[in-house]
Automatic annotation (TrEMBL):
It is an enzyme of class 2 (transferase). It comes from the Eukaryota. GO terms for molecular function: ATP binding; protein tyrosine kinase activity. It is a single-pass membrane protein. This is non-specific serine/threonine protein kinase. PANTHER family: OS07G0107800 PROTEIN-RELATED, REPEAT FAMILY PROTEIN, PUTATIVE, EXPRESSED-RELATED. Residues 572-713 form the Protein kinase domain.
Amino acid sequence: ISLDCGGADDYTDGIGIQWTSDAKLVFGGQATNLPVQNQLQKQYSTLRYFPADTSKYCYTMNVRTRTRYLVRASFLYGNFDNSNVYPKFDLSLGATPWSTVIIDDADTPVVEEAIILAAAPTLSVCLSNASTGQPFISTLELRQFNGSLYYTDYEAQFFLALSARINFGADGNKSVRYPDDPFDRIWESDSLRRANYLVDVAPGTERITTTKPVFVGTELEPPEKVMQTAVVGQNGSLNYRLDLEGFPGNAWAVSYFAEIEDLAPDETRKFKLVVPGMPLFSKPTVDVEENAQGKYRLYQPGYTNVTLPFVFSFEFKKTNDSSKGPILNAMEIYKHVQITMGSQDANTMSSLASRYPQAGWAQEGGDPCLPVSWTWVQCSSEAAPRVLSITMSEKNITGSIPEELTKLSALVELRLDGNSFSGGIPDFSGCRNLQYIHLENNQLNGALPSSLGELPNLKELYIQNNRLSGHIPRALSKKSIIFNSSGNNLQGPSDSISHGTIIIIVCAVVGAILLLAVAIGCCLCTHKRKKKPSRETVVLAAPAKKLGSYFSEVATETAHRFALSEIEDATDKFERRIGSGGFGIVYYGKLADGREIAVKLLTNDSYQGIREFLNEVALLSRIHHRNLVTFLGYSQQDGKNILVYEFMHNGTLKEHLRGGPNDVKITSWVKRLEIAEDAAKGLSQFPSYSSTSMQSEDSESLFFCLEHCKYQV
Ligand SMILES: *[C@@H]1O[C@H](CO)[C@@H](O)[C@H](O)[C@H]1NC(C)=O
Ligand SMILES: *[C@@H]1O[C@H](CO)[C@@H](O)[C@H](O)[C@H]1NC(C)=O
């Protein structure tokens, strides 16, 4: 694969390499031409650049597993953005940080090369983390090796990042590459001048070359053309100093020798490697002809794992019994780069993303978590990260909920809302950490799986506005969670009577007026009769739960929380009782700032616990209407559940109808109609919802209004 990044067409260059446009292999980025055409190859006249944001931008290429590849990326800045800001950004190979690309010259390409054993059927090269300028890339190449070339014992855990590949004694500045090297390695000429690279050359260093064939073995390491040139130290030594990119580190370092001079029978060439401060190197003596078993044959001693410094000086020094100075044909130095394990969920995630080949968001490529995560994914920060959160909201997705999601066992949050997902809700029981599930506003159908009720950490479940039907699993209805299931065809658990936790009350204005009128009529007729306390308690408690679950999206945090001491001060330790309802007893209070309040101290048996209470708080803090009493906050301390309202000087509606402390008597039917109308307006604040069982719902919301609607004179 030879990608001309930003290039528009496919072509074959002067040395026979077929270049193709990168457009199909990358998501995002902008192709551009360099403003000034350079003298380099055509592939350097274009590039692709990416936003300098927190995303990563990946090229994903198909490879053959358990095969070694050379991966080469090059970067020629060429002032493409006319800003003369030299970019600096990170390059990664899959999940593994490969290198930081630092541009310090607009006209010289930076080239990064690595040799890696492909462990998966794709290999991705990603750009991210721009610290200056915008990330960009000029070319990306992939070359497949044969046989055991570049095999190392560590290749499953480490890849090799190239630091130096030098063709000594080269003919001119030109590199040797394809077709001389069938694998298209680039053997740089030792006469190419670079800062701090191959300096401190010993006097008496001469270049030699031969046209005779050199036997380089069956694996072409390195190619013959490279071995046909060399340097020799006529004064007895060859000296070099070079900076090794990415070092200090552990290196794979090999030197390549072949005797390419016709020595007289009595002449010998023996030498040792001398590295200052590293006596280890000095031990073996090289006798090229003997070691290679003949002239014009390759001998390649080296170290598969040796620690090298950043500034590397070395010397080949002839031994005392040698008549000729040392020879050096070529050399390669790579750094062992530890392969980052990557996310444990990488395969699942790539399978998930591959379901949406047309969607840009699914084409980000590389590891879902490393070195930076996909834009719609959040991961844990451990060494092999897990996917914690998926946000696929409003992405126009159709079809069923992908089963891959059920395999993300560390998942905490799942957002699939606002798509067109259809079919059933799959079994998420393998995702035991799930806390937040958003499936609302889709076209899901079928029953709610009971497994949802068994998720031990579930906190919030949103399934509203789907086509779900059947009974709500009992385990789910019993959980203390925020649960919104409106806009479906669901019924309460089949085996319980009054826990229609999720069914939402309805309040059509007209219906409410009529029912309220009837209710008022009934109240007026019956208020002198003994009430049936058990019935009222049940009914009054119910709406809070139903409304509460609808509004439970509103965090209780939005409501003010009073300290119990504050309430005790305001009410003079619950001194003045001003009423009682199904929920509890209401006391008069006055806050420190002078505001008059009604404090409802809830009787514990009318509530089933914290959840209902907090649902009520969430509901009341959400509704604001002139016809409803203003909810000021709550207090929950020392086992006391307290709701705080503004004090209604005129009393509650119920008090008006029944006769309260103010002993208001309403006799006029016009007045009653007005009340009914106002009550209906108050009730119309509650979202309407078409229910099949309107009757019971409405009577409950009426009772709610009797408690919470204001009577305004
Ligand atoms: C190389 O040697 C060092 C030090 O002995 C060791 O830590 C490292 O794991 C070895 N392997 C590689 C591939 O670096
Ligand atoms: C959503 O997907 C449909 C095809 O499934 C496509 O026709 C439509 O244009 C998409 N809408 C958006 C806003 O992407």
